[in-house]
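Researcher: We are triaging several targets before committing to wet-lab work. For this one, the compound of interest is pyridoxal-5'-phosphate. I'm pasting the protein sequence and the ligand SMILES. What I need is the predicted three-dimensional arrangement of the protein with the ligand bound, expressed as structure tokens, so it can go straight into our comparison scripts without reformatting.
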Amino acid sequence: MKITMSSPDLNDADRQAVINVINTPILSMGKYTADFEKAFCDLTGAKHAVSVNSGTAGLHLCVRAAGIGAGDLVITTPFSFVASTNALLFEGAIPIFVDIDPKTGNINPELVADAAKNVEKYLPRKGVRADGHPPLRAILPVDVFGQPADMDPINAVAREHGLTVIEDSCEALGATYKGKHAGTLGEFGVFAFYPNKQITTGEGGVIITDDDEAAHFMRALRNQGRAPGDTWLQHTHLGYNYRIDEMSAAMGASQMSRLDEILSKREQVAAWYEARLAEIAGVEIPFIEPYTTRTSWFVYVIRFDKKINRDEMAKRLDARGIPVRPYFLPIHLQPYMVEKFGGREGDFPVTEDLGKRGLAIPFSGVMTEEQVDYVCNIIREEVMKS
Ligand SMILES: Cc1ncc(COP(=O)(O)O)c(C=O)c1O
């Protein structure tokens, strides 16, 4: 049986939407981009949606719009895809990492509170200014694997200390926290649409915000810094080409029109996995907090008992035709981060522990129950051999 790590969930209408665009002369900044953005306002109730050509670009624009610059300190998580931290590094800001909740893998709000009060304790070993540093500016939590971070206590810390909150919801489109949409929980929220995501545009991202001024600024920055009233060769700001193209936007708008169906299919696959994997001794299944009123399943990450060598298991599963991926390798231990900030093994024990025991197994909304059965049987056999 052929099993893939992930697979987009595209139907004929999604494909037709792209064909419709390429039969017109407008391939960038047209009607489909506007439709795609509107779908996010309709879904989340956000006032503005700004589409871009990746989640990383979206995070970067939020960092610029929040006025975060060189030497500024931002509390964030080392248990994430590197882009959440990279967006800070692009502007010379310094990530203040705090460890995570062992059950969900999301940033630990108690540590966020402590870091906001005692930031000196959390400064990296290297890369900070000898002459002191600007104050803490923001918090950048990540909704890990499609489950929102515990945002109420995080927002309470932000209010107390006057910090901006940028919610990295790149993995959590459609998830809800106490009934509220992921992405709406801070000042800015960002979604991403790489082909392994819940919906895809090939490459793409969307920022949502209620802040009028920030939205106008981000629209200008994504379009080479052209502010309203600028001509094609006039640029008010230092900007980027972060525009999404019309083919991607059309695919995305079509995918958004069936988001609920797409998420429900992923929920079904997660439920099939849960029923089978919960019974295997030595395998832990994902933990969902009661505050998560809807999980938007992005990846399905299991954790092995400490007695099982995850890397060995990954090789054995791969050899049997089951593609798997360790999730996440901690950000503070990535080579460029070690060089810049001097991170070491032992700095964030919970992140490192989950980083050593977690394994993403094949997952998508188009998996069949038979495929899930097949994957689980092989996992069971290999775990029994360990
Ligand atoms: C948590 C997180 N942040 C940011 C990104 C970046 O998104 P993109 O790959 O679209 O740049 C991703 C996705 O890959 C992600 O998982």
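Researcher: Any quick observations?
Model: Residues 54-56, 80-81, 83-84, 142, 168, 170-171, 192, 194, 205 surround pyridoxal-5'-phosphate (CB under 6 Å).
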